Amino acid sequence: MTFKKILFVCMGNSCSSPMAEVIMQNLMVKTSLYWEVDSAGLRTWNTGRRPNKRCLQILREHGLRSDHFCRQFSVNDFLYFDYVVAMDEAVFKELLLWAADNRAGKHCKVLLLSSFGKNGLPAFIDSLSPTHKLKSFRSAYYQIKECCKQLILSQKVDIVKYELPSTDDDELYYPGKDNTPQDSAKANHVTETSHNNSGIYLLNTDVRSSGGLMSSSTDPSNSKTSMPSYSQGVQRKLCHKCGQKFLAAL
């Protein structure tokens, strides 16, 4: 998966954005992704201070900690980060106004974290401030974590499912047997691109990213076949078992 630089932004950088920063960093460790993650605030209220005590307490409840010191967002962040992620709609609208004048055609994208809900639907994230009670911070933790998971999955991790041939295609896997025209047509759907010590063959990118579970067969000398994943665009290839571990880690 391509290396990314992500910045979470809220108003004061003491509650929701440092929480999102730590949550995302923890997900990076679990999934062995190497992204740079930071957080900032649009206002100078808390510059140089530690995050809010309730934010730090919720993180400790989940075995996490933050070494962050609050800082103010800068227009230079548009030039450095790939994604600037707003924690609420007010921050999102203000960032869009800043980006219009200061992004200068760079690759940086301004995103709203709550737009990354399950099944592509918008999610709800409790707004946080130093005056809110602990239960609001606790609810926001799980909401932010779920949206961060969906943000990671939106980067199109390609999980390739390897399967043994079905009994209907067994004749394709025994040397010395002639292929029928129908068998030969099936074999043409797959192109051999790479082979490892376990005998697994991978599909070409154009086939693997075509979408849908398209059944495939290989050349008579091959011992296994692969199935393409649902995702479009291949950035990281995982076998089915490793793919399940990746999703479980999230």
From TrEMBL:
GO molecular function annotations of the record: protein tyrosine phosphatase activity
Residue positions of the active site: 10 (nucleophile), 126 (proton donor)
Chain segments carrying region Disordered: 211-230
Localization annotation: Cytoplasm
SMART domains, per database record: LMWPc (SM00226)
Domain Phosphotyrosine protein phosphatase I: 4-154
Family indicated by similarity: Belongs to the low molecular weight phosphotyrosine protein phosphatase family.
Keyword list, A-Z: Cytoplasm, Hydrolase, Protein phosphatase
Source species, domain of life: Eukaryota
Pfam families xref list: LMWPc
CC annotations in GO: cytoplasm
Descriptive protein name: GM17892
Biased composition (Low complexity): 215-226
